[in-house]
């Protein structure tokens, strides 16, 4: 496909490409930690295309070498307006290291999956280099790394509290969250001649100013002050209390401005924009993407992250789950921004036109696949709400969880003559489909959706994420009781049997999450074994900036109650919890037996290892499921 297109269809990566466009100057240079894939699933492409759409001449420096003579940073010279900096689609530390702080051997956002093409703390490294080379050119930072490190945050990899990334990077301005709206406003103001240094009253930006300076005036904003960075260093409870304020303000339509002092500077975080309208989100997705990596990467090998999403379509942004361990709502927001059906079906036409398309859509989804077009029934209620989740501890009565829009859209995609199958590869929120938990299923549209999903859109296995079996741990996770997963599985099995389908249900679980103890993991292993699962998909909790769970991990208290929560921290404790997932491995049997003997849990030894103990035999007869299994053997 690349060979058929002129190189000018991509945003320029080299001076040669700039010259081919006939430009004698660049307005904005964008530095990215990812390879340049011109596709709406990649933030660098979206930001680049938005800048282009506003009439600016944009060039991209993708994965610059930060160790040599820095020629990559100099190749376009000095831009007219500013440098933009992003670490890429992931926080660079999450990209580089496992939960055990081991260096990863691959990078999904680099050609050939090669590691080592971006630095640790990429946003800081890139910004500092630019400030040294071009001290008088403004630097604007954004993307998930900058967004989630905008205030004092715990950094798991250095095991310390760090100040706002603006302090360490020296950048002039930070755009947090999904940056389409603030970026467009900022560009329009620059076009009108407003100096970059005056862009201090745009929503959804953050900046540092001298503590003695006056706050920029805005009559419609109230201001809330956090405990200073220095106070957080001295008192973990103050750091935890800060988080609650930041999360609450991030989830409000009429939010307050936030300030925090760090040394002789004041951090100012302006309130976020209201969620994008359908027209606004369509505008971002409908830009003229080539939907391909830049041709320069052809000889270096495939880009794994692109291969994964090449034939997928993202229908919406945002997630109202508010899970304690997840950064999606912190970055994309809890309110759903849904694309129009027309925009989605137009993208479908682009996907099926690809010569490599073989008839299979890999994913028709979003952060949580089944939240498309879901919103509050009465917007006035949403406007007053500051809850971090619309579905925890219970589903809000004001939330419209109608799945009909999705069911109809799936059918339209299904009917396309070039589509053999359209799969739902994103995880679904199964709790929205359980009537005992979701009382908003008035006309049975959930049942119609799940039947459509199971019979037409599962590629052999459906991924769902109950995350745990312990109610106490699930409450901290902001997830529903595991009993609802049982009910979902019953429905799933019933529909599968009725349609003579043998498709696996794959549940995801997390070990070492705050509030989870070793015996909880043993119970999880026993309960899932009893349900017929032999788990392979296992995730060890990784503390990432700007999540409730990370705040608990570092401070030892829940940010909303400030009450202590027990959390495992050492590598040995974390590995011990993880081992229970793999009860079926011979090398773990002796260890599991010993740990459960120490915990005085003969019942769990019996369930996991199928070894009746003398104590359990005295207490009760062998359970029927074990007796049946023994007979079969």
UniProtKB/TrEMBL annotation:
Keywords from the UniProt entry: 4Fe-4S, Iron, Iron-sulfur, Metal-binding, S-adenosyl-L-methionine
Pfam families, sorted: DUF3362, Radical_SAM_N
Sequence ranges assigned to domain Radical SAM core in this UniProt record: 305-585
Cofactor stoichiometry and binding remark: Binds 1 [4Fe-4S] cluster. The cluster is coordinated with 3 cysteines and an exchangeable S-adenosyl-L-methionine.
Top-level division of the source organism's lineage: Bacteria
Region (Disordered): 607-633
Database matches in InterPro entries: Elp3/MiaA/NifB-like_rSAM, Methylthiotransferase_CS, rSAM, rSAM_horseshoe, rSAM_sf, UPF0313, UPF0313_C, UPF0313_N
Matching SUPFAM superfamilies: Radical SAM enzymes (SSF102114)
Entry annotated with the keyword Disulfide bond: no
A single MF term (Gene Ontology): catalytic activity
Cofactor(s) this protein cannot do without: [4Fe-4S] cluster
SMART domains cross-referenced by the UniProt entry: Elp3 (SM00729)
Chain residues that bind [4Fe-4S] cluster: 319, 323, 326
Family named by the database record: Belongs to the UPF0313 family.
HAMAP family in UniProt: UPF0313 (MF_01251)
Protein name: YgiQ family radical SAM protein
């Amino acid at each position: 496909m690349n060979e058929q297109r002129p190189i000018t269809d991509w945003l320029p990566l080299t001076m040669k490409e700039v010259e081919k466009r006939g430009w004698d100057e660049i307005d904005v240079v964008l530095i990215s930690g990812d390879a340049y894939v011109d596709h709406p699933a990649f933030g660098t492409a979206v930001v680049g295309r938005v800048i282009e759409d506003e009439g600016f001449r944009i060039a991209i420096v993708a994965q610059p070498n930060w160790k040599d003579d820095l020629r990559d940073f100099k190749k376009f010279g000095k831009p007219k307006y500013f440098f933009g900096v992003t670490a890429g689609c992931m926080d660079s530390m999450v990209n580089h290291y496992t939960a055990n702080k081991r260096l990863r051997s691959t990078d999904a956002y680099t050609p050939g999956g090669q590691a080592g093409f971006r630095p640790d703390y990429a946003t800081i490294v890139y910004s500092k280099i630019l400030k040294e080379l071009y001290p008088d050119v403004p630097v604007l930072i954004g993307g998930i790394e900058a967004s989630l490190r905008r205030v004092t945050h715990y950094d798991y990899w250095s095991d310390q509290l760090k100040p706002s990334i603006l302090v360490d990077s020296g950048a002039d301005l930070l755009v947090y969250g999904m940056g389409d709206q603030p970026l467009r406003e900022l560009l329009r103001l620059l076009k009108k001649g407003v100096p970059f240094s005056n862009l201090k009253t745009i929503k959804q930006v953050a900046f540092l100013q001298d503590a003695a300076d006056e706050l920029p005036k805005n009559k419609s904003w109230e201001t809330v002050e956090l405990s200073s960075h220095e106070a957080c260093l001295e008192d973990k409870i103050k750091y935890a209390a800060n988080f609650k304020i930041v999360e609450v303000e991030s989830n409000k339509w009429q939010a307050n401005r936030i300030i925090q002092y760090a040394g002789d500077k004041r951090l100012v975080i302006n309130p976020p924009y209201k969620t994008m309208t359908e027209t606004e989100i369509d505008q971002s997705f409908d830009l003229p993407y080539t939907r391909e990596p830049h041709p320069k990467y052809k000889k270096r090998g495939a880009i794994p992250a692109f291969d994964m999403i090449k034939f997928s379509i993202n229908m919406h942004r945002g997630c109202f789950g508010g899970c304690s361990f997840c950064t999606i709502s912190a970055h994309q927001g809890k309110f759903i921004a849904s694309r129009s059906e027309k925009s989605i079906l137009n993208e479908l036409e682009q996907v099926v036109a690809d010569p490599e398309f073989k008839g299979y859509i890999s994913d028709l989804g979003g952060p949580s696949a089944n939240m498309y077009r879901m919103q509050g029934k009465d917007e006035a209620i949403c406007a007053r709400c500051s809850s971090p989740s619309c579905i925890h501890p219970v589903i809000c009565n004001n939330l419209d969880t109608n799945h009909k829009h999705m069911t109809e859209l799936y059918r339209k995609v299904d009917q396309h003559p070039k589509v053999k199958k359209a799969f739902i590869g994103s995880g679904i929120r199964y709790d929205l489909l359980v009537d005992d938990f979701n009382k908003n299923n008035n006309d049975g549209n959930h049942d119609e959706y799940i039947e459509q999903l199971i019979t037409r859109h599962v590629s052999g296995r459906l991924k769902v994420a109950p995350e745990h079996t312990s109610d106490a741990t699930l409450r901290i996770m902001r997830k529903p009781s595991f009993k609802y997963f049982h009910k979902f599985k019953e429905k799933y099995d019933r529909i599968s049997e009725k349609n003579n389908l043998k498709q696996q249900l794959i549940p995801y679980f997390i070990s070492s999450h705050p509030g989870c103890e070793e015996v909880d993991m043993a119970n999880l292993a026993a309960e899932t074994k009893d349900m017929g699962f032999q788990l392979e998909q296992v995730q060890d909790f990784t503390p990432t900036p700007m999540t409730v769970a990370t705040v608990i991990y570092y401070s030892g208290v829940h940010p909303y109650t400030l009450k202590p929560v027990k959390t495992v921290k050492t590598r040995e404790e974390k590995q011990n919890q993880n081992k229970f997932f793999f009860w079926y491995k011979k090398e773990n049997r002796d260890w599991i037996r010993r740990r459960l003997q120490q915990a005085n849990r003969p019942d769990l030894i019996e369930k996991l290892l199928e070894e009746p103990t003398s104590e359990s035999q005295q207490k009760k007869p062998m359970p029927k499921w074990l007796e049946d299994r023994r007979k079969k053997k």
